[in-house]
Amino acid sequence: MTRTIYILNGPNLNLLGKRQPEIYGTDTLEDAASRCREVAESSGLNVDLRQSNHEGQIVDWIHEARQKAAAIIINPAAYTHTSIAILDALFTFDGPVVEVHLSNIHKREAFRHHSYVSARADAVIAGCGIEGYALATRRVVSLLAKA
Ligand code: CA2
Question: Can you give the pLDDT at residue 23?
Fold first, then answer.
């Protein structure tokens, strides 16, 4: 069985740590990857963190995950609130799915309160900054151990 966790990130998250630190903090996606790697490697798992500004690319990575990943951690960014395509792709994936948001989307504008992706997520973490990715990795490790 594959031992890789895909960590998929949506549009504009390549700017993490470089813009709007008051909302998203000063850590970068690479910092998030390092934290996840520490958690995963202690349980013999690998992480593969990716970011794309394109919805179809994220859908393609989820399809690829069907063969190549044991679990998916996903921050779909703005696609959280719009993308039935990403939701439908996640429904084709059999392993654990954890949705992560850096900010607490429920404390923000009303249009951020609804997530399409949550209809498939086994867990949702919001408002913990990049620590949320490490928490999601911990949860995935524990779900995979039970499977
Ligand atoms: O809080 C989150 O993680 C979000 O998924 C981030 C999205 C936003 O549309 C969601 O409502 C909540 C935005 C990602 C934009 O990322 C940036 C990072 C740094 C600087 C500018 C944008």
Answer: 86
pLDDT along the chain (147 residues), means of 10: 94 95 92 98 96 99 98 99 99 98 97 98 97 98 95
Q: Is the CB of 146 under 6 A from ligand 1?
A: no
- Identify the residue whose C-alpha is closest to ligand 1 atom 16: 13
Task: Identify the structural domains of the chain with CATH numbers, from first to last.
Answer: 4-146 (3.40.50.9100)
CB 74 within 8 A of CB 11: no
Please say if 79 is a catalytic residue: no
Q: Confirm whether 24 is a catalytic residue.
A: yes
Q: Which residues lie closer than 8 Å to 13 by C-beta, 6 or more apart?
A: 29, 51, 75, 77
- Write b or e for each residue in 39-63: b if 16 or more Cβ atoms lie within 10 A of its Cβ, otherwise e: bbeeeebebbbebbeebeebbebbe
Is ligand 1 within 6 A of the CB of residue 83? no
Distance 9 CA to ligand 1 centre (A): 10
**What is the reported pLDDT for 73?**
99
Residue 2's pLDDT is 84
Tokens of 57: 């690319």
